[in-house]
Design brief:
Belongs to the glycosyl hydrolase 43 family. One of its GO terms (molecular function) is hydrolase activity, hydrolyzing O-glycosyl compounds. It is built from five helices and 23 strands. With 467 residues, the protein is an alpha+beta fold. The chain has one domain: Glycosyl hydrolase domain, family 43 (Tachylectin-2, Chain A, 5 Propeller). It binds 2-acetamido-2-deoxy-beta-D-glucopyranose (4 copies).
């Protein structure tokens, strides 16, 4: 059948317009389909996240379980004085548990430094695998005790690996002078690598001490403490800051070293008085925006100073704030959660343990407020001695918001190389237990809690990529 041109074109038009409308419909239905798929995937993804998240919650709750210990009852160490001395001076005065802890012949000391039989080893398969045992000897993948005291951890995005830097104290402990503190000669900064924060492989000494040149900052007769490493995205360098001192702690300086690789070798650049001030215990902190800061004990350890580093992280900038003035705090460990800065510090009692304090601030430059002792569980003595340890670093866990690892050193001043690591879960939440300086007693920040556990492990999903 043939049609007049006009009707034909009208039909064509109708077909065409039908085509147009059906294309539009198709488009709409496609869009709808895509939306539904997307929505479904979204809900499904949320389902999955909810499942993972609730698993996290169960495991996380375990970390927040308050584990109580009985009060300690120990028989004091034997009186090692001669019978004549005892007769002349009378019986030994009762000693405090901290004195007992420091006395390597005491039962208390033996309790807090359990022997090698109980060492935790990544080589030994078994039910201890992946479990942290605060205070127990901790071996590396070669079967040697980990030597990384006063340390800190860097997560390296480039290699997706954790690096633990700390003091190698594997030398004899001695006193340089009769009245001076126990010390070990500088051996260097050790580095260990791990993917799981539990199995640590020794990467060797990444910044060695100096054997012969007595005028060098790292000469073995000096002091190198609390090394910390951060990565500079702009210069592509790994930058190490550390406390540099002489044996009498009168130099009170910071040292800076730099490397192209996380596993070194690091080149020592110089030591200095930051902003012209003395600096002893210190740490550095890299903020989300790439700005880095140094925090150090100054003015005879009576206050802390905080100030930004230069863009290359190799120097301090001119700007500095005095914080926690007159509070005599050291061993600062800094971390950040939901835009708030937190810090754990210790008191200044040498190698002897003391009570930790948690602090919080809206700006890293202060004002910093003190929230009280974060230690939870254990018993009164464990809580008042930071579990017989001293803060050194707080490790964020990317996959678990609000949960961190608190890293501390249980110093053994009679044999410093045998000092132990106390790692415990730290969480943020709940009400602080000390009224704050600037908020008229109203709780301003959530409580920081460090939970005592004899044995614990990280909850599943603590890595960001598992979510
Ligand atoms: C490890 O597991 C074995 C067998 O299940 C058990 O006998 C042993 O007590 C466990 N050890 C610890 C420390 O839990
Ligand atoms: C010893 O160290 C100082 C300070 O770092 C340096 O100036 C000097 O050149 C070194 N001496 C030798 C012989 O390496
Ligand atoms: C440390 O002090 C002692 C005496 O207290 C002194 O003999 C020694 O020279 C000092 N050492 C340094 C490196 O200042
Ligand atoms: C660090 O910066 C200060 C000025 O803030 C400057 O005086 C000093 O020379 C710098 N140090 C180094 C090693 O560049």
């Amino acid at each position: 059948m043939t049609m007049p041109d006009a009707s034909r074109s009208a039909v064509m038009l109708g077909i065409f317009s039908g085509l147009v409308s059906s294309t539009a419909a198709l488009c709409w239905s496609l869009t709808g389909f895509v939306l539904i798929v997307y929505f479904y995937a979204y809900i499904h993804q949320n389902d999955k996240q909810d499942i993972v998240y609730s698993n996290h919650l169960v495991d996380t709750r375990k970390l927040e379980k308050v584990e109580e210990e009985e009060e300690f009852h120990f028989t004091p160490a034997k009186d090692r004085r001669s019978p004549r001395a005892i007769k002349r001076k009378g019986p030994r005065k009762p000693t405090s548990i901290i004195q007992e802890f420091l006395d390597d012949s005491s039962q208390v000391h033996a309790f807090f430094f359990p022997n090698k039989k109980t060492a935790i080893s990544p080589i030994k398969e078994g039910n201890d695998s992946m479990h942290f045992y605060p205070g127990q000897l901790w071996l590396d993948t070669d079967g040697n005790p980990i030597q990384a005291h006063g340390g800190g951890i860097l997560y390296d995005d480039n290699t997706e690996t954790y690096y633990w830097y700390g003091e190698n104290k594997d030398g004899p402990t001695y006193h340089a002078h009769e009245s001076s503190a126990a010390r070990v000669d500088i051996i260097g900064v050790n580095c260990y690598s791990s993917k799981d924060l539990w199995t640590w492989t020794n990467e060797g000494i990444v910044l060695p001490g100096e054997e012969t040149n007595v005028s060098h900052d790292l000469h073995k007769s000096n002091v190198l403490e609390r090394p910390k490493v951060i990565y500079n995205d702009k210069t592509d360098k790994y930058v190490m800051w550390m406390h540099i001192d002489d044996a009498n702690y009168t130099k009170a300086s910071v040292g800076v070293a730099v490397s192209d690789s996380a596993t070194g070798p690091f080149t020592f650049l110089y030591s200095m008085h930051p902003q012209g001030c003395e600096s002893r215990d210190m740490t550095i902190f890299k903020d989300d925006n790439g700005e880095a800061y140094i925090i150090y004990s100054s003015n005879d350890n009576s206050e802390l100073h905080v100030g930004p580093l230069t863009d290359d992280y190799l120097n301090v900038s001119g700007f500095m704030k005095r914080i926690l003035v007159g509070r005599h705090r050291e061993a600062p460990a800094l971390f950040k959660h939901q835009g708030i800065y937190y810090m754990i510090t210790s008191g200044c009692t040498g190698w002897a343990p003391n009570e930790a304090l948690a602090h919080a601030a809206e700006s890293i430059m202060g004002p910093w407020e003190t929230m009280g002792n974060p230690c939870t569980g254990g018993n009164r003595i464990l809580r008042s001695t930071t579990f017989f340890a001293q803060s050194t670093f707080v490790v964020p866990l990317q996959g678990l918001s609000g949960i961190f690892i608190f890293m501390a050193d249980r110093w053994n001043p009679s044999e410093l190389r045998d000092s132990r690591y106390v790692w415990l879960p730290l969480t943020i939440g709940g009400l602080p237990d000390e009224p704050l300086d600037y908020s008229f007693g109203f709780p301003h920040w959530p409580r920081v809690s460090i939970y005592w556990h004899q044995r614990w492990r990280l909850p599943e999903g603590w890595r960001a990529e598992e979510r």
